[in-house]
């Protein structure tokens, strides 16, 4: 399967899977992965 990643993308499929699998608070995940809380909430 070909995956197209945008040049401005801050998350990868692997990172999104880790976010979705986590039970940690949004703020902790955002800080850990260096993304905005809104990015974590969308995943």
Task: List the secondary-structure elements in sequence, H or E.
Answer: HHH
Number of strands: 0
Q: State Rg.
A: 11 Å
Low-confidence spans? none
How large is the count of helical segments?
A: 3
* Outline type: globular
Kindly report how far apart the N and C termini lie: 21 Å
Structure, described:
The chain has three helices and no strands. The chain has 43 residues and is mostly helical. The chain has a domain at 13-42. The longest helix is centred in the middle third of the chain and has 9 residues, at 13-21. It starts with 12 loop residues before the first helix and ends with a helix.
What is the topological layout?
Elements: H1 13-21, H2 26-33, H3 37-42
Name the descriptors.
mainly alpha; 3 helices; 43 residues; 53% helix; 0% strand
At a glance:
This protein has three helices and no strands. With 43 residues, the protein is mostly helical. It has a domain at 13-42.
